From TrEMBL:
<keyword id="KW-0378">Hydrolase</keyword>
<dbReference type="Pfam" id="PF12697">
    <property type="entry name" value="Abhydrolase_6"/>
</dbReference>
<protein>
    <submittedName>
        <fullName>Alpha/beta hydrolase</fullName>
    </submittedName>
</protein>
<dbReference type="InterPro" id="IPR000073">
    <property type="entry name" value="AB_hydrolase_1"/>
</dbReference>
<dbReference type="GO" id="GO:0016787">
    <property type="term" value="F:hydrolase activity"/>
</dbReference>
<feature type="domain" description="AB hydrolase-1">
    <location>
        <begin position="43"/>
        <end position="261"/>
    </location>
</feature>
<dbReference type="InterPro" id="IPR029058">
    <property type="entry name" value="AB_hydrolase_fold"/>
</dbReference>
<feature type="signal peptide">
    <location>
        <begin position="1"/>
        <end position="25"/>
    </location>
</feature>
<dbReference type="InterPro" id="IPR052897">
    <property type="entry name" value="Sec-Metab_Biosynth_Hydrolase"/>
</dbReference>
<keyword id="KW-0732">Signal</keyword>
């Protein structure tokens, strides 16, 4: 078959799929897709800046082994409102109860995305920002001393006048993942996804932690979001706290089993 005929055949097939989608409900993500997870909520994991969804791999394995459906969502890192809107759309396709988890800047996103969704039973913040309405990541980070992140950032100017921010690979481990094996931290540094400067300066929306129970895993040796700030957010939200002494900002990688167990605790206690 010639290339032109193959392309036409592909177009016909694509049109058929789109037409069918207009008539039939698209099979959604997570628990709704199979309908057999029943009693356990879907856990949605949201990564933060300078990471990607693959960082949740060990947490995901533990949760899946224990019978939880898991979605490790891709976070665009383009802006709080933009990222929250994308996550909100994803959440609306999941049937049944949800445990929504955010790491770092992911806490900014889940706080806005969860508002108004009755299926979300708990918010879990893993070394994360817990913003009030209008508070930005940079604004929160300046509340307490201890973050050494600014001096490790390397901006890449963008055509629209914004900038993508990366952590200098040579400084990544000491800044982000001090308790992660050096070879794994090197991979994380190489595959990090940038966040825009405007995203870190953008205020959060109406915070869902005002109406949804929250859980906070505190990384006590965090050099990116100081532990004092993590405690501040947890206390303001009247959330459940668990301290991890010696844990870096990448606690979800270095202590994946503990992180998964903490998420499962939130699932049990809000069932």
């Amino acid at each position: 078959m010639s290339l032109s005929k193959r392309l036409r055949a592909f177009g016909v097939a694509a049109a058929a799929v789109l037409t069918a989608g207009a008539v039939m409900a698209v099979a959604p993500t997570g628990a709704q897709a199979t309908g057999d997870h029943g009693k356990k909520p879907t856990v949605v994991l949201v990564h933060g800046a300078f990471a990607d969804s693959g960082g949740w791999n060990d947490v995901t394995r533990k949760l899946q082994r224990d019978g939880y459906p898991v979605v490790a969502a891709a976070n665009p890192l383009r802006g709080v409102a933009h990222d929250a809107a994308q996550l909100k759309a994803k959440l609306q396709q999941i049937d049944g109860p949800i445990i929504l988890v955010g790491h770092s800047y992911g806490g900014m996103v889940i706080s806005s995305a969860a508002t108004g969704n009755p299926n979300i039973k708990a918010l879990v913040y893993i070394a994360a920002f817990t913003p009030d309405k209008g508070e930005s990541a940079f604004q929160l980070a300046s509340k307490f001393e201890g973050s050494t992140l600014p001096e490790t950032l390397r901006p890449v100017p963008l055509p629209d006048g914004d900038a993508d921010l990366y952590v200098d690979q040579k400084l990544f481990r000491q800044q982000f993942a001090a308790d992660v094996a050096s070879r794994d931290a090197a991979l994380m540094a190489a595959s990090q996804r940038p966040v825009t400067a405007s995203a870190l300066n953008e205020g959060g929306g109406e915070p869902a932690w005002r109406t949804i129970r929250s859980y906070h895993l505190i990384a006590e040796a965090d050099k990116t979001i100081p532990a004092k700030l993590q405690h501040f957010g947890a206390d303001r939200a009247h959330g459940v706290k668990q301290r991890e002494n010696g844990a870096s900002h990448a606690v979800f990688v270095s202590r994946a089993k503990t992180t998964a167990e903490f998420i499962e605790r939130a699932a049990r206690e809000t069932a």
